[in-house]
Write a structure and sequence with these properties.
The protein is α/β, with parallel strands linked by helices. The chain contains 14 helices and 14 strands. The mean pLDDT is 93.
Length: 387
Amino acid sequence: MKKTIKGYRRPDGSVGIRNYVLILPTSVCANKVAQDISAQVHGSTWLNNDFGCCQIAGDAALTEKTLINVARNGNVGAILVVGLGCEGAEPTHIAQEITKFGKPVSCITIQNEGGTLQCQARGISIARQYAQDLSQQDYEEISVSELILGMECGGSDTTSGLASNPACGVASDLLVNDGGTSILSETTEFIGAEHVVARRAINSQAADDLIKLVVGCEERAKALGADIRGGQPTPGNIQGGITTIEEKSLGCMHKAGHSPLQGVLQYADFPGGRGLWVMDSPGQDIESISGMVAGGAQIIIFTTGRGTPTGNPIAPVIKITANEETFTKMRDNIDIDVSSIMRGESSINEMGEVIYQEIIKVSNGKTTKAEDLGHKEFSIYKIAPTF
C-alpha cells in the first residue's frame, strides 16, 4: 500500500511537513531584529546568520546560496527578508532570487525603516499577515516519496557505529525503497571509509566524485597548515571508546544503509533526483544540518552516543541513541532509544523500522523534543577568514 503523509504543496511543486513564515536575516547585523519579529508572530521561525558581510568571494557566494535555498525548503511557506541595508549579502537581491520559488516574500531593512523599533514594527505587521494566510492552507495527502531525509551523527561513541547508525541506515533504505530521498553528510567522517560507499555508486562518475570530495577535504586542511586527523576523533568520541578517525568513519557510513549512491552534492544544493546522495559538509553538526536543510531536507534524523540537544529552525530533528545511559540522562532531548540492540533484545532491522515509523509520525505533525524545547540551531559553513 502506498504510504502517505500530511504535507503542504508549494507553488514550485515542492512539499513541506511544516508551514513556517521564515524571518530571514541577511547578515549578523539583522539577527536581533529578525529574532524579535519572530517572537511576536505565531507560526514564524527565524535563523541565526553570523555572516553576510566582509566575506571573500567563495564564502560570500556560499552564504547567499544557503540563505536563498533555505527559503526554498518546502517547510517554508512565506519569507520576510530582513537586512541592515548595506551588507554584502544584499537583501533585495536575495529577496528577488527567492521570488523565483513562487512563495510570498517581502524585504525590509533597518536603515530604510528608520532603525530597530520601526523595522520590527513593520516586520511584525508583514509577518503576521503571512502567518494568517498560511494558517488557512489545508494540508494534502502526499506520498512519502516526496520526503528528503537528512542524516547526521554527533557526539558519537561505540554504540553509534554498532547500533544507532546501522538502524538509521535501515530507515534510510526503507524511505529510498518507497521512492524517497536521503542525504548523508559530514565529509570529514568519510576519511578512511570513502571506498565503502563509493563501491555502491551507480556509475564511475559518482564514485570518482566521492573520492575526490574526501581527498579535497584533506587537501584544504593541509593548505591551512592543519592536520584534519588531529581534530578527529574528538575528545568526546575518544571518551566514548572511538580510537581512530577510520573507526569513526566506518561507523558513520552505516547511516547510508545499502542503497546505491546517486551522486555527490555541494553544500546547500538540492538533490538532482531521488535515492541516496552525499553532501559535502563539515563534521560540525550544526553547519552540516544547516546545509542539508538548505538542500531541501524537510526532516533530520540525528544519532548520538554522548547526547546532544541540537535542533533546527526549519526542519524537525529526531534524536536517536543506542547508549542506555545517555537516554536515561537526557530523556528531555532524545526521541528514540535503540539501546535494546546493544542488549540483544531487538534487531537492527526492527529498530530501523521503528525509526522509519517515527519519521512518518513527525512528518504527519508529531513534534520532536528539539522542537518542543525551542532548539533552533543554525550555522553556515565557511572556508576562509572574514576580511
